[in-house]
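My convention is simple: the sequence line spells out the residues, with the fold written below as integer tokens. I include a record here:
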Amino acid sequence: MCDSKYGPNSLLDFLKRFSDVHVASFTLTSTQLKKSIIDANEEIRRQFESTGFHDYQNQLAGESGKVVVQVVALCRRTLQPTTMTMYRARSNRDPRLWIGRLRSLYPEARMGDQFLIAQDGQRALILDVASTELDNETEMLISSVFSW
């Protein structure tokens, strides 16, 4: 668990130092924890569209419309490559995303944990706020993702 001085606000404040990085969040539900399927809430959709990272509005539903991108997950003080699949459900066109290996990347994640998706239109970083302590090492890891 994070020390209280390293909560979501300090992580957000640090991420805001990168002028092109936009951050969206979601709170982990039991279904998301079990299946790794996340509803792309309005904040996620808006932030993705604002940088050109992804446009759910114009995405086709079903298998043919899926978009898979390489992302990085910050977990256990390391950067781990994984994938994020963005799609619209075929049945009801709900916008969703799937983070590859979510449970194995974050075995300590619990229902109610807040996750952040930081992206700059080309690169994306996934963080579990509850397990991310913001210190010099973490700052260097995050900086390595978004610094050219």
Observations:
- Confidence is low (pLDDT under 50) at residues 1-6.
